[in-house]
Design a protein that fits this description.
Radius of gyration: 26 Å
Helix content: over 70%
Distance between the termini: 72 Å
Strand content: under 5%
Structural class: mainly alpha
Largest sheet: none
Order of helices and strands: HHHHHHHHHHHHHH
Length: 317
């Protein structure tokens, strides 16, 4: 229960931070949510791998014998039988080291619903930006935190805590135990707590959808402005301006159809009613757009530098 208490306290702190609606508090909320999700997934991975402990240990025994040239034909057959039943040491290390590998592993094991995979992966990237690089997606930080809180509740609901009889619990857990109807079942506590927390914070899907869609459309409007400004400096067509922006792009260059597609997909978000599908599609558009967006910004910098150079030459500098 102490493991559950750790994450419940984090959820409660996030609730307080969300109400402030300022970047410093929302940044902390994001970091706390990501930490809680990763801790829950770590515990779930431990349980999954513990379920294959005997097969893994037997496989390791026969492989050591094989390396020493002492394995029998029976041992070789057991290696062939056991290898598909266990998670390899290489994958275990990757799961231990990376957030994305944990999510993928748990989805494969049906320990997490598959619809959370793209959402958690993208939200973890947001967390890395705000935590490691001091980069904050200010325009979508609040809706992203609200979506992460909702998804984190889904992850919390799948946790199966280890119960120790007569274990002391703090007030954060006690309020959920008291709220459960009838005799409180500690093993159903995460599911009940997740449902309660989700209802207390809420997710206004229409508001979130509008915020995400408008954010994308504003960025696309800016990209379109960059392209047209490049056209004003001697590029004869929209497509030629796009080619100039990508002067160093050799693989999978963007074309005019891509720009049109991003806009159409962004506008189509207005009809998406599933919260996971909404953020998954938002993230997919964003991931597809951002490399060209960065190139367009770099192109504008190159043009500004060229203009300034020409001005300096004209002034005789």
């Amino acid at each position: 229960m102490k493991q559950l208490e750790l994450v419940i306290v984090q959820f409660e702190e996030v609730k307080k931070l969300i109400t402030v609606e300022r970047v410093p508090q929302l940044r902390l909320a994001f970091i706390l949510l990501d930490s809680a999700v990763e801790l829950i997934m770590h515990r779930k991975v431990e349980r999954e791998l513990d379920g294959e402990r005997w097969q893994f240990d037997e496989l390791e025994k026969y492989r050591k014998m094989e390396q020493g040239g002492q394995v029998s034909d029976w041992g070789r057959r057991r290696i062939a039988e056991l290898a598909p039943q266990v998670t390899s040491k290489r994958r275990r290390k990757k799961i231990n080291d990376t957030f994305g590998a944990k999510v993928e592993f748990l989805v494969e094991r049906d320990a997490l619903p598959d619809e959370v995979l793209p959402v958690l992966s993208r939200l973890h990237e947001y967390r890395n930006e705000t935590y490691h690089r001091d980069e904050h997606r200010v325009d979508v930080l609040l809706p992203a935190v609200l979506i992460y809180f909702d998804v984190a509740c889904t992850v919390l609901s799948t946790l199966r805590p280890r119960w120790i009889e007569d274990e002391e619990t703090g007030p954060e857990l006690e309020r959920f135990l008291r709220g459960m109807a009838g005799w409180p079942d500690p093993f159903k506590l995460p599911e009940y707590a997740a449902a309660t927390l989700r209802s207390e914070v809420g997710l206004d899907l229409a508001a979130v959808r509008s915020s995400l869609m408008n954010h994308l459309l504003a960025r696309l409007e800016q990209v379109d402005g960059f392209i047209r400004e490049v056209m004003s400096f001697g590029r004869k067509s929209y497509e030629e301006a796009i080619e100039f922006i990508q002067w160093d792009e050799k693989d999978s260059p963007t074309d005019e159809r891509d720009v049109l597609s991003w806009r159409e997909r962004a506008e189509a978000l207005v009809s998406v009613v599933d919260k996971h599908a909404l953020f998954s599609e938002f993230a997919a558009i964003e991931i597809s757009l951002e490399p060209f967006e960065r190139q367009a910004i770099d192109a504008m910098i190159r043009i500004d530098e060229e203009i300034n150079l020409q001005i300096d030459i004209a002034r005789g500098k």
